Amino acid sequence: MTDGGEAPSAIDTVIAGGWVLTMNPEREIYRTGAVAIDDGIIVAVGQRTEILTRYRPRRLIDAPDAVIMPGMVNGHRHLLCCAKGAMPEGGQTLTALRRFIYPSFAALTEDDMHVHAQHAAAEMIRFGTTLFEEPGCNHLDAVLEALAASGIRARTGPWTWDQGGAAGTADLPDWLRMDAPAALRRLTDGVETVRKFGHPRIKDAVTIEGVGTCSDELTRGAAELALDAESLFVLHKSTSEREVELELAAFGHRPVEHMDEIGALNERTLLNHMTSLDDRDVAFVRDAGARISQNPTSAIKLAKGTTQTGRR
Ligand SMILES: [Zn+2]
Fold first, then answer.
1. Mean of the per-residue pLDDT values for the chain?
2. What pairs with residue 60 in β-bridges?
3. How many of the other CB atoms lie within 10 Å of CB of 70?
4. pTM of the model
5. In this model, does residue 146 exceed pLDDT 70?
6. What is the CA(293)–ligand 1 centre distance, in A?
7. 76 Cα–ligand 1 center, Å
8. What's the mean pLDDT in 46-65?
9. How far apart are CA 232 and CA 133, in angstroms?
10. CA 109 to centroid of ligand 1, rounded, Å
11. How far, in Å, CA of 30 to CA of 23, rounded?
């Protein structure tokens, strides 16, 4: 080149023209930006003119009115739960679960699960989610197949409980009944199944239900399994004031303190919902290095009172 400039490199794709929201340390936003992609990898982000000077894309996607942003992460998306709009209004967490949600989960066949996984993945991708955590599905093989074909990234494991927790067995469906050792085998098998499937976008999780449906033996065992397997221990915890009352009555501790007490709170733990907390609960989570996934649509649907009973 006689002008001293370099010839533009040929690459696969440039998306150009819209607002580009970067996640770089300066949190830069380009008003008329562009993203250069080659072989599935983002190779550059910058102003449109600069990117199109440096790169000659085989495919140019002109997106002047679009927001071009990193994929969003959904920390809690049940693949068992796709019948949106079917759930009755006015439920309380524990009764809604036992009288409507668990029975609806129990009714799903392997084919249903495959369709649910396809539908949920397509919906998330459509709205910009590229990674989600699935907190316990059934028919894991069908789910893995559907997710692999979808293009989304995920963590998942099998729906697991032993129906041995503080909330008792009243109104629980006759579905996946098992004792704690069988439940722990199901979790171990789940991790192995996902790893054997070997898809680079799909990781395993040690998924138990919580919400007063799991014994201490299962909860502790699952926490240890996630540590040993370097996986993620996922469960629903402190999901309502009623759950807190039941654990206080059964153990003399609130749910999060009880997890700490039995040695089940560690840095591989992801606690879902967490809508009924006090300051000590927050300290237990912080000290253990555990993580939280807040689920605001569920909290609103069930009018959990999070603004009164939660913590920031
Ligand atoms: Zn959930």
1. 93
2. 14
3. 13
4. 0.90
5. yes
6. 10
7. 6
8. 96
9. 10
10. 19
11. 12
